[in-house]
């Protein structure tokens, strides 16, 4: 039998934490992801089933649903990224698919993304160095896709003054982490 | 240059990739098209000094395709539509 050790997106055994001043960047390893795309002609039915699954309406453009058992981020017209925690794990896509049936195409995404949480004071100047979204105008529950360090990333605002989640391509986790920490050191 | 995305609001043009004439949406039907139709679709473009409808891709954003009406002399953008909606109005997709 193989005896394999799981590693994080940055290649270590434990998630990385970097702190500059009072702002911390946490590598998140407990997030499961699955993408949902409503099928042609099934948009309304898919929306209804998503509503039952999430406990609230699926988020509209540039919005996210947070603080539920499952989170959701709007990706494009009739497309969402569903997030779950460790409990859902590798099974998240199967769980979502079982709820949405033939109204949507569901794809496992956990292994495609890395996740960094910024928490503390000084998020605004750091994000302004990283990308060109209007971070000052973002409210809790806003989510934007943008380019950070030439990488297509999602920025989800949990608390405009204190918590932002960044999802980026896992294959470039090292580059994204480098960009975030460099911006933290420059701005703070 | 700022492109006013129909869903996401004003966004910097640096987030977008330019493809070209929006006529590309209207691909000939492979079942019935003649070689002349393909020649026209593949190679012939108007080059107007003035309003031009063109395709832009929001690569650094929500990855949507947009039909942008831009004045090639002033760069003024007068209309931005989701390309999917434009295609459906033309009877393509459903």
Please characterize this protein's 3D structure:
- The complex is a heterodimer of chains A (188) and B (94).
- Chain A has 4 helices and 11 strands, in the order E-E-E-H-E-E-E-H-E-E-H-E-E-E-H.
- Chain A has 188 residues and is an alpha+beta fold.
- Chain A has 2 domains: 17-29 and 111-187, 2-Layer Sandwich (Gyrase A, domain 2); 32-108, Alpha-Beta Plaits (2-Layer Sandwich), CATH 3.30.70.1520.
- The mean pLDDT of chain A is 94.
- Chain B has 94 residues and is an alpha+beta fold.
- Chain B has a single domain (2-90), classed as Folate-binding fold (2-Layer Sandwich), CATH 3.30.2270.10.
- In chain B, 17% of the residues lie in helices and 35% in strands.
- Chain B has helices spanning 35-43, 83-89, and strands at 2-5, 9-12, 17-21, 51-57, 65-71, 77-82.
- A 4-stranded antiparallel sheet of chain B has the order 3-4-5-6.
- In chain B, a hairpin with a 7-residue loop joins strand 4 and strand 5 (65-71).
- In chain B, 15% of the residues are buried.
- The A-B interface holds A 40-41, 61-62, 75-77, 132, 144-147, 152 and B 7-9, 12, 14-15, 59-64, 82, 84, 93-94.
Fold blueprint:
The complex is a heterodimer of chains A (188) and B (94).
Chain A: E1 17-20, E2 23-28, E3 32-38, H1 43-54, E4 64-65, E5 71-76, E6 79-84, H2 92-100, E7 104-108, E8 113-120, H3 123-130, E9 143-148, E10 151-159, E11 163-169, H4 173-187
Antiparallel strand pairs in A: 1-2, 2-8, 3-6, 3-7, 4-5, 5-6, 8-11, 9-10, 10-11
Chain B: E1 2-5, E2 9-12, E3 17-21, H1 35-43, E4 51-57, E5 65-71, E6 77-82, H2 83-89
Antiparallel strand pairs in B: 1-2, 3-4, 4-5, 5-6
């Amino acid at each position: 039998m193989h005896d394999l050790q799981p590693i994080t997106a940055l290649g270590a055994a434990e998630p990385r934490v970097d702190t500059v001043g009072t702002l911390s960047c946490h590598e998140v390893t407990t997030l499961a992801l699955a993408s949902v795309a409503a099928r042609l002609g099934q948009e309304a039915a898919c929306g209804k089933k998503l509503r039952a699954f999430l406990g609230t309406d699926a988020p509209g453009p540039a919005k996210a649903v947070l603080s539920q058992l499952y989170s959701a981020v709007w990706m494009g017209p009739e497309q969402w990224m569903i997030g779950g925690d460790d409990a859902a794990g590798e099974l998240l896509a199967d769980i979502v698919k079982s709820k949405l049936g033939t109204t949507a195409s569901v794809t496992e995404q956990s292994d495609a993304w890395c996740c960094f949480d910024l928490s503390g004071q000084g998020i605004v100047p750091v994000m302004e160095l990283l990308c060109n979204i209007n971070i000052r105008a973002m409210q809790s529950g806003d989510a934007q896709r943008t380019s950070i360090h030439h990488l297509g990333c999602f920025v989800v605002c949990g608390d405009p003054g204190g918590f932002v989640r960044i999802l980026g391509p896992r294959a470039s986790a090292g580059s994204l982490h480098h960009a975030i920490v460099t911006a933290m050191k420059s701005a703070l | 240059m700022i492109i006013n995305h129909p869903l996401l609001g004003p966004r910097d043009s640096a987030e977008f990739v330019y493809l070209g004439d929006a006529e590309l949406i209207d691909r000939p039907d492979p079942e019935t098209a003649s070689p002349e139709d393909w020649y026209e679709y593949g190679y012939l473009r108007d080059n107007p000094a003035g309003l031009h409808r063109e395709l832009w891709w929001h690569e650094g954003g929500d990855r949507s395709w947009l039909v942008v009406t831009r004045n090639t002399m002033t760069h003024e953008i007068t209309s931005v539509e989701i390309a999917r909606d434009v295609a459906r109005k033309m009877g393509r997709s459903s």
